[in-house]
Amino acid sequence: MKFFFSWLGEIPEVALGVVFILWFIDVFIQYRNKEGVEAKRITSKRLSNGDENPVQIEVKNKYGFKINLRVIDEIPFQFQLRDKDFKLSLQPGDVKSIHYNLRPTKRGEYDFGFIRIFISSPLGLINRRYNFDGAKVLPVYPSFINLGKYELMAVSRYLTEFGIKKIRKVGQSSEFDQIKNYVGGDDIRTINWKATARKGALMVNTYTDERAQNIYCIIDKSRVMRMPFEGLSLLDYAINASVALSKVAMLKEDKAGLITISETIGAIVPADRKSSQLGTIMNVLYKEKTRYLESNLELLYSSVRTVVKQRGLLVFFTNFESLSALHRQLPYLKRMAKYHLLLVVFFENTELKALSTESAKDIEGIYHQTIAEKFIYEKKLMVKELSKHGILSVLTAPQKLTVNVINQYLALKAQQRI
């Protein structure tokens, strides 16, 4: 064609020249502004283990034209996820926020990388990269996001909304609160006749739950607590429940303490109800890890006798996979129950429970189902064995641990058994 129309040979050269001009224009308008984009990652100072933690990225366009962005957030390797990748467009001066959640399943330090932003102008010939918020380290602490909900559980009249049962009080507490005017429905046995004579109207004594009682969470760190369910180990479930129970206990004006045990005694936090107590407990539990040996309950018993001077509630988080394992530890549990109200908390194997309800398709399936039912039945026998020796117990699914333990504490508090 160029033989007949010589001007056709100039079109590729003109087109290439136009592309180069547009490329230089794109480079110029993007790089003339040193800070054309601003971005920052907004998170809490620490993450809550086992919970959905909100993360926000805020991006602002400082160019005088519309830009298209690709935003990549380099999240910690512990999540085993590819970097969070988002695409959006911004008009001049616009500010937009990107929201997503992260659920850590291990305590410790989590390293965030850069927020990498690739922008393109309406010409779309080049991308410019920006980096923001590099090398940010956040600690992951025992679960604290839902502590407000558990506080409400301790004071709300509508406890059934949280899975908490209404407990009928037995007897009358001896902890005096105040003298008030009699109203219909008050117990006539609480009428204060001296105050009535002075006032000239019926006055009654009111009582409140006993306070300042010792509530110790004892956490087993041995190998039996390594088993994972939904990403969290049994130790992590026990730690999260201990933090929530300590918070509720202090809200009820009791003293919260902590003991961790494996083949040796780990951390000991004496019971107290000062404002910094919960922070102390969380800082201790932040560092705790499971061990590979069996717990030394004889050492635990001697430590309890040394540390816990007054009678209190001992909540022992552990796990037994067989009756023989329980029988090995039973003598020491009986000794502790002699001096304190002992509540042993151990776990259902939810995967075995699901397996036992499935319909078997062959001989192998029947065999697996039979073994699963045997282990489930043994767990129920453990509850009866502990009850036979006057030891309270809670057998619970890991996911329901916190609610069930708080429910049991409130029940014992209402029944004045502590």
The gist of it:
The chain is built from 10 helices and 20 strands.
The count of strands amounts to: 20
Low-confidence stretches: 157-162, 166-172
> So, CATH architecture of the largest domain?
3-Layer(aba) Sandwich
Major sheet summary line: 6 strands, mixed
Walkthrough of the structure:
By secondary structure, this protein is an alpha/beta fold. The protein has 3 domains: 31-141, Sandwich (Immunoglobulin-like); 147-168 and 210-414, Rossmann fold; 175-208, no CATH class. 33% of the residues lie in helices and 28% in strands. The protein is built from 10 helices and 20 strands. It has helices at 11-31, 147-155, 193-199, 234-251, 277-285, 297-307, 323-339, 350-357, 363-388, 401-414, and strands spanning 37-42, 47-48, 53-61, 67-73, 84-90, 95-102, 108-112, 115-120, 128-132, 136-141, 175-181, 203-208, 214-220, 228-229, 232-233, 255-261, 265-272, 312-317, 341-347, 392-396. The strands form 6 sheets. A 6-stranded mixed sheet has the order 17-16-13-18-19-20, sandwiched between helices. The protein has a 4-stranded antiparallel sheet with strand order 5-4-8-9, with no helix packed on it. Strand 18, helix 7 (323-339) and strand 19 form a beta-alpha-beta unit. The longest helix is centred in the C-terminal third of the chain and has 26 residues, at 363-388. The protein is elongated and about 115 Å long.
Features:
418 residues; 10 helices; alpha/beta; 20 strands; Rossmann fold; Immunoglobulin-like; 3 domains; four-stranded antiparallel beta sheet; six-stranded mixed beta sheet
